């Protein structure tokens, strides 16, 4: 039988169960927790995103010799020399930092040169290759110049960047070498060249081959001024570079294991039809044959260079006094 009597507001029918809302005391911690999370969540997201932006993609580097995965920070601390002794290729910025006292130096400008004078294309326009290399390295061309102290001896240092189109010798690279030699003569300083190249730049044809003669004349200017010219051969130094300014130094140093030569070993074997000796064209082999004066580990280069430059500059001063 239904109950048709009117009910007061807030009353419920007989026999029904009252559903009480959760206690306010129970809801408070949840609301408080939600508020705390909402406050820190944006900060956590920003921190994670920031770490993603600053963490390099190549955090691990593969050892070219042993194939072992090496932690990038450990390689940087070891000057990019692997546990097996492999001296990996480095760019001008790192080279200047490792060579100059305290990593401090004054960067010198490299003159501009005509771009793509032959309008060359080898399936891809030369101008596009230049733009791609500049985007990848952040440099205008393969040569970089700086002046600073090497164990107390001031010197002009030129670095050839293999990452820029294989460090190939073109018009811009030739202008860079000439600028380095002129800066050394003007400042009455010795010059150090770190070479790394696969040869002349084929996209510039005979114009690139002309740089061999131009750089040779620049070395003669240093010799006429009785200024020391020291070459550090790094991996690889081949082709027209090894046939010109890379082999015209007063002293030739080389990093361990550096490939140094003119033509490739396979081409030589096919030409002479003989098997080449083990380690042919490597720095250690060339020391035995008298082509390189000394093989020097990267960590020891500043000390060795500083000693050589001070000795040569002291001899120059005595010659002038006499």
Topology:
Layout (H helix, E strand, L loop, with lengths): L23 H31 L5 E3 L6 E3 H6 L14 H8 L6 E3 L17 H12 L5 E8 L2 E8 L10 H17 L3 E7 L8 H19 L4 E9 L1 H4 L8 E4 L10 H8 L10 H6 L5 E2 L5 H21 L1
Parallel strand pairs: 5-6, 6-7, 7-8, 8-9
Antiparallel strand pairs: 1-2, 3-4, 4-5
Distance between the amino and carboxyl termini = 135 Å
Residue share in β-strands: 5-15%
Q: Helix content range of the residues, please?
A: 40-55%
Count of alpha/pi helices: 10
Give the uncertain stretches in residue-range form.
none
CATH fold-level label of the largest domain: 2-enoyl-CoA Hydratase, Chain A, domain 1
The assigned structural class equals alpha/beta
Under the CATH scheme, the architecture of the largest domain is: Alpha-Beta Complex
Total number of domains: 2
Shape designation: globular
Average pLDDT figure: 88
According to CATH, the homologous superfamily of the largest domain is 2-enoyl-CoA Hydratase, Chain A, domain 1
Using only CA atoms, what is the Rg? 33 Å
């Amino acid at each position: 039988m239904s109950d048709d009597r009117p009910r007061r507001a807030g009353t419920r029918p007989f026999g029904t169960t009252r559903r009480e809302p959760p206690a306010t005391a129970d809801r408070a911690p949840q609301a408080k927790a939600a508020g705390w999370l909402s406050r820190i969540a944006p900060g956590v997201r920003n921190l994670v995103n920031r770490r993603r932006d600053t963490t390099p993609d190549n955090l691990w580097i593969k050892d070219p010799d042993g194939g072992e995965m090496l932690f990038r920070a450990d390689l940087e601390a070891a000057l990019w020399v692997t546990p097996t002794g492999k001296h990996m290729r480095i760019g001008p910025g790192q080279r200047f930092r490792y060579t100059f006292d305290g990593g401090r130096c004054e960067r010198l400008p490299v003159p501009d040169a005509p771009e793509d004078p032959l309008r060359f294309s080898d399936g891809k326009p030369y101008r596009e290759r230049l733009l791609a290399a500049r985007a990848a390295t952040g440099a205008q061309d393969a040569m970089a110049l700086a002046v600073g102290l090497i164990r107390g001896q001031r010197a002009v240092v030129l670095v050839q960047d293999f990452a820029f189109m294989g460090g190939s010798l073109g018009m811009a690279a030739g202008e860079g070498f000439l600028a380095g030699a002129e800066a050394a003569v003007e400042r009455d300083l010795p010059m150090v060249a770190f070479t790394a190249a696969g040869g002349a730049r084929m996209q510039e044809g005979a114009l690139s081959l002309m740089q061999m003669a131009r750089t040779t004349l620049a070395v003669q200017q240093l010799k006429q001024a009785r200024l020391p010219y020291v070459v550090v051969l790094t991996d690889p130094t081949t082709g027209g570079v090894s046939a010109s300014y890379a082999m015209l130094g007063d002293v030739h140093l080389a990093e361990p294991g550096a490939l140094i030569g003119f033509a490739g070993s396979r081409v030589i074997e096919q030409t002479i039809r003989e098997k080449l000796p083990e380690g042919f064209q490597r720095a250690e082999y060339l020391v035995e044959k008298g082509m390189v004066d000394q093989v020097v580990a990267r960590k020891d280069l500043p000390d060795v260079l500083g000693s050589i430059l001070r000795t040569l500059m002291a001899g120059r001063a005595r010659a002038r006094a006499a």
